[in-house]
Amino acid sequence: MTTARNIGLAIEDLSVYYGNFRVLKNVTLQIPSNKVTALIGPSGSGKSTLLRCFNRMNDLIPSARIEGKVYFGENNIYAAGVDPTEVRSRIGMVFQKPNPFPKSIFENVAFGLRINGYRGDMNEAVERALHVAALWDEVKDRLNDGALTLSGGQQQRLCIARAIAVEPEVILMDEPASALDPIATLAIEGLMRDLSREYTILVVTHNMQQAARVSDETAFLMMDDDRAGYLVEHGETQQIFTNPVDERTEAYITGRFG
Amino acid sequence: MQGPISTRAEFDAELTNLQNQLLNLGSMVEKAVTRAVDALKSRDLAASEKVVKDDDEIDQKRFEIEEHCIELIARQQPIAGDLRQIIAILHIAVELERMGDYAEGIGRISMLMGDEQPLKALIDIPRMALLATGMLRRSLDALVKRDIEAAKEVCSADDEIDAIYDQVYRELLVFMIEDPATIRRATYLLWAAHDLERLADRATNVAERVIYLVTGKLTEINVSKY
């Protein structure tokens, strides 16, 4: 794999099956680097499946099968010989519900570094990640407290710090603010904007206003009659939310769907 | 999905209400222009005064529309076609209110003229008023039908008004050159003609907003000579 930072992602004619059921069909999409790209679409349109393809999380689902290519920079991450763990260390993920480990705040952030055999100054690395995740000031005096003593919004920022600690180039976020209150949501959204200067961010969200606020580009997925997800429209967020090209996009984002 | 569908239906009903409010304002403005020019022509000062007074209602109506737009933006966070519709209506309401001011202006000119007879028989000015109110009506029809071709036609009709205005201007200029004593009375009529020329320009602005609403493109369709 190339080591250049901030390279984009591209998928080519991607189809994903769970057993015989096709969840995604023939998706081709380019994700620009150092931008926030939002994936929107109704439940079941394959957004999360698509997101998980980018760091081979679908490999963990026994019946999952993938056709097509997913490029990270120049490299197809599904090519033979690619180590999924290596992919995941460069393409991090943050989930819908904050899922800190039942360990201290410090250990949560240090965890990924330890399993990757990090040899640098651990205190420094943890502090740096907590700063980037805009959590440092709130936790610097209680790093040894349990992570579960934090509020939901803080826990989610901790999970972002944990993802950032191993210095990925891409951060995948699956509805990262859906379990949070409006204040914590704004904090996460602000963080996404900040992070996009250094990282490529791909976020699945059901919240149209959130997609409109945080993303530079938006991709809209729908499902066809066989319930397979496909890409309807992808463009600059400004265009998608003021003047979408496809009628289906308009119907979905304005809530006229179904 | 009962909940979301019904709030969408409510929003649609609100958007229809908003458009109806705008059409109502348009019809108030159209009447004001017609009454202002009729009163100018028939020298009915009481009617002119009423046009001036009634402009307050037009101003009030425009604020109501503006407040309704603000409320919908705050509560519904509109996007895409919904957003364009609200923004277009917000702009059109301002255009209509300004057109109402031109009608008021013609009312004031008539009151300034007082007992004096107009310098010449009023033929072109009522014609301009007829054309301008026609443009206004057609631009709002285009809004209702979301018809960009009709909107473009409104814009091209502005040339005819400009041509009549040219003619009125030349004619009044001749009066003023031949007899400087007519300058004051000629100026009154020139003001009235100018108000109508501006009014027609505002109707093209309305049509341009219809094109924006439908296509998302902000364009100047027909640049008026004036």
Please identify the oligomeric state.
heterodimer
Order of helices and strands of chain A: EEEHEEHEHHHHEHEHEEHH
The most extensive contact between chains is: A-B, 15 and 15 residues
Compute the number of structural domains of chain B: 1
Termini separation of chain A comes to 44 Å
CATH T-level topology of chain B? Methane Monooxygenase Hydroxylase, Chain G, domain 1
- Rg of chain B over CA atoms, rounded to whole Å, is 20 Å
| Helical fraction of chain B | over 70%
| The top level CATH class name of chain A | Alpha Beta
Under CATH, the homologous superfamily of chain A reads P-loop containing nucleotide triphosphate hydrolases
Strand content of chain B: under 5%
Overall shape of chain A: it is globular
Give an overview in words.
The complex is a heterodimer of chains A (258) and B (226). Helix content of chain A is 34%, strand content 26%. Chain A contains 10 helices and 10 strands. Chain A has helices at residues 47-53, 84-90, 105-115, 122-132, 136-139, 152-165, 182-195, 208-214, 237-242, 247-253, and strands at 9-18, 21-31, 36-40, 64-72, 75-76, 91-94, 170-174, 200-204, 217-223, 229-236. In chain A, β9 and β10 (229-236) form a beta hairpin. In chain A, α3 (105-115) packs across α4 (122-132) and α6 (152-165) runs parallel beside α7 (182-195). The model of chain A is unreliable at 1-5 (pLDDT under 50). Chain B is mainly α. Chain B is elongated. The A-B interface holds A 208-209, 212, 240-244, 249-250, 253-256, 258 and B 1, 4, 7-8, 11, 77-84, 215-216.
